[in-house]
Predict the structure.
Amino acid sequence: MLQSAKFLVVLLSLSASVLTARAAPEPLRVVTLHTVLTEIARDVGGAHVTVTPLLRPGTDPHQFEPAPADIARLRQAELVLAAGLGLESYLGRLQRELKPGVLLEIGALLPNPLRGSPSQAVHHHEPGHDHDDDEAHAHDETDPHWWHSLDALQAVVDIVARQLTLLRPDARADVERQAATVRSRLASLQAWARAKVETLPAGRRVLVTSHDAFGYLAREFGFTVFPLLGSSTVDEASARHLAATIQLIRRNQIRAVFTEASSSPRLLETIVRETKARLGRPLWADGLGTDPENATIDAMFRHNLTAIVDGLSAD
Ligand SMILES: [Zn+2]
């Protein structure tokens, strides 16, 4: 009797531990290749994910290359989130290291009206800036900077939530609730952004920046954008393009031009000397940083749009 009772206890505790294991699977191992995706994966996944960011805040994603230790982390990942659309020039090589189906190129999954149109800038690649033939993504000319569109960010939240629930079906309720929280935060940000842009007369919504990173923001908020460089920070501008931009600023009496944290301000300083435009506060083009003004998507967006509207409103 005593023996069988003991047996029953063992049996019960065994099945209890099996049940617990079923109720709470290991958090999904997610590796992110972009700082904006790190925030979204953490906020949408919550306790159901462990997110390993390969890009430190403030790193230029155009120039990043994964180190051998990063490759080891990527091999362990159940889900790898990349910005896509050619931002990560190394993705073609990386794909060979990953299990099939692990890599999700977010930009390529954006619904078509949200995905960027071909980059507007005149492209002048640095001499010697040739890519390997097998780097198919490096020549994708669609603008990869989708995190400057709040509509695109909303879609990205949905894409990430869908993939997380696919890989962890038990987490569905939590993931959907967390995704809804992020979406409502983005909706508040959008309401604020629209009101902010409304204060700027339509004729002043002209954006001169270093590299072609703000096409998405421009399209969403009715700006015309004149980047000096292509869609990568490794591009260079020609003297002719620089002269044309100076003419454009003089003709339209543009009040401000904008440098970026990841680009050299040299060209824009030349423009400031040649025109009446002032240098606006530097914009955060390529992802999140560590300062209060750029540590989150919300902070980055508010900083950029405030800098733009204030700069272009000035007399
Ligand atoms: Zn960029």
About this structure: Residues 62, 145, 211, 213, 233, 285-286 surround zinc ion (CB under 6 Å). The domain at 25-188 is CATH 3.40.50.1980 (Rossmann fold).
